[in-house]
Automatic annotation (TrEMBL):
PANTHER family xref list: 3-OXOSTEROID 1-DEHYDROGENASE, FUMARATE REDUCTASE
Protein name as annotated: Urocanate reductase
Domain of life: Bacteria
Cofactor annotation: FAD; FMN
Signal peptide: 1-27
Naturally occurring in which organism (per UniProt): Raoultibacter timonensis
Keywords for this protein: FAD, Flavoprotein, Oxidoreductase, Signal
Amino acid sequence: MVTNINRRSFLKGTALSLAVGASMATAGGILSGCSSSSEAPQGENGTFSASSKGFHGDVTVKLTIEDGKISKADIADMGETPEKGGKAAQILSEKITEAGSLEGVDSVSGATTTSRAIFRAAEECLQQAGLLEETGEIAMEPGIYVGEAYGFDWIEPVRVKVEVDETSFKSIEVIDKKLNREEPLIMKAAEDLLIPRMVESQSVIVDSITGATSVSAGIKTATERALKKALEAGGSNSTAIHNFYKPLEQSTDEKTLEYDIVVCGLGGAGSSAAMAAAEAMAAAGREVSVLAIETAGKYGGTASNAGEPFSINAPRYIEKYNNGEEWCDYDSLYEDWMANYSKGTPCKPECVKLLMDESGKTVDWLQFDHGFVFSNAKKGFGTSTWLCKQQYIYLSNQDEGKDYASEYPNYTFGDRSSSVGQYYDSIIADFEALGGKYLLETQAYELILDDSGNEVRGVKARSNVDGTEYTINAKAVILCTGGFGGNGDMLEKYLQNPEYPLAARWHLWGMYQNKGQMIDSAIQQGAGTYNIDMSPCIHFKTTSDYLTEYPCYYRDGLEERMLEQNTWSLNDIPMMMGINGNALQVGADGVRHYNESGTFAFWAGGPSWFTIYGSDYVDGLAQNGYPGEDGKFQSSTKVFGQGGYPQVTPIPQVYEVLKTAEDKGYVFKADTLEELAGKIGVPPEEFVAQVERYESYCKNGKDEEFGKSEKTLISQINYGPYYAIKADATPYATIAALDVDTSLNVLKADGSTPINGLYACGNDSGGVLYTNLEPYAQYGGVALGWAFTSGRLAGANAVEKLDS
């Protein structure tokens, strides 16, 4: 298979590898004035502190200086992502202290934004201590300069060209957009909002666009690198780049707004709620008085990145496309739902019926009234056989026999992101046409109730851009904030499940802006919860870290959803080992918790686990590669996977690759199982007993613990050295929070008293559909179906109750 790599692919892969290395090497590369040699300035002794903007907040660095060297570096990650930013803070603290300076210390791969913030703050500390020259004046050679840096995707960087004059940058343009593989709608939000602010403020550290944080970081870093080239060409000193480290000025303004209805969040639930409320007002002859506020720089939220909503026999749709014949047997699906979700804290049957009765009508409403385009009904996941979900339509999943070009002449069907973006543009345009208003980049953070706590009065919100404070008085508030998956403190606080180790900071594969402030505010003011301790919505898994050190090669074909060129890389070998459902996986206690090959079963072990191998498996990869056939590829994961690896292709580099991953701290190797247990921090006796028990199942062909099939019971832990790969479950979002009734009215903690005027939809109330002892339903699209349906109903209900 390797002989099929063409010259272009090889050179491209090599160039990418070099680019990664170069970006790491230059991350702290403006530090020529910071030598630790005996001729360097001694400066002042003492502790110096400075802060700089990181991925999610300010990163604070404290450097202790003794005799011209850094004797101690303390870095507070200040809310950075624990698996990336927090790790970078720890690694760089150790490396800077060990080196005694910043010279030669590289950024941490996968945490470029936090690394840059740390270096910026550390340089300021060194300036305070007199060990780094003061910021020089700007002198650039006019022209166009190109910079690149990685955004969300790690296969191709974001590239920008920056036009400069002698003292300023005049424009920033993202180039090679078809190569960078960033999600188009998210990239557009950054281009439309971030770049103008950077040019206006002449700063590379303005706040990232919420909901587009990673791609914003890529644009800012790439721009900074381009400016460094211009400064060097113009003869500026090494610290002149500091002139472009200017935060935006924050406003002290306070504004009061008056609306009948405020919708918090503008994803699937919020878009539906706002639209339905505006429609109901217009139909009643009222002036439309609806404000939707969204913390991200774009509307659509997690819903625009999902695949399909749950839908039962959409009546108008089946009349048009299926001769009026039903796709799904309502009664058998309902019976199955009740059988599966009536344990522990059970689902609310009346809410399940509400979803099943109204979901088809919602799909009709979206499709025929507001510009969405859905497929014919399809099966769910795993063993689900009901035709109860309808996918968003994009280029590569269109139903046979339909002429989409003729039926939808105003739409361009391409990748999933761009296609779905048109649907949200349509419903928001309809909302505005009726008089509805919305604010992006505005975070609702506090619920306002009357003195009795029985009736809503509005919300408090804050601009993410300039800090303007809003008091928004309203008669009804509809919470559609997407859950609390982006809030590590809330995950630890509320996922206190009695049966499963869920209370932790999960490796989110979703929208970090969903921080749950309004959910928590409602709870603090007496709102009840329902199954808030259940598993988040988990479809994918990945390793706790990943490699970018090896070339990534293009191969034939396009990825189905985003229509991006397929790739493959050695970088994926540890990842594919970590997520392998045919291998033994143990939790933090050293024992199994689930059938490793079961559909989405890995949630039961909590956010992380270890996948275990002996050298018999690794030697097999080295000698034979993955089983299969020539021309096929062993699949990787969508979560930072880089396309997998060719089958039936020996991988002699596997030992080196695993060593690279070991050095990064997510692969562990030991000569004995007892030693491996010590390295991964599990009890040795339980761990060794578990390995022996599992291997006996493999050899006997029967899993006596979790019923894993004989086909997936593969013996591969027979001799050392032994390996453990740390892997993570990666949820889209949390799906349970507040308690609601069938009007979507939020209930107090007593479970029966409504808080008048307060509604919760989508992931802010989805727990009413489930039990806390089972994961997200496998029928397909339930979270998105509930978002659309609960939003539509809540918007209409809120209007109906306005004058009551």
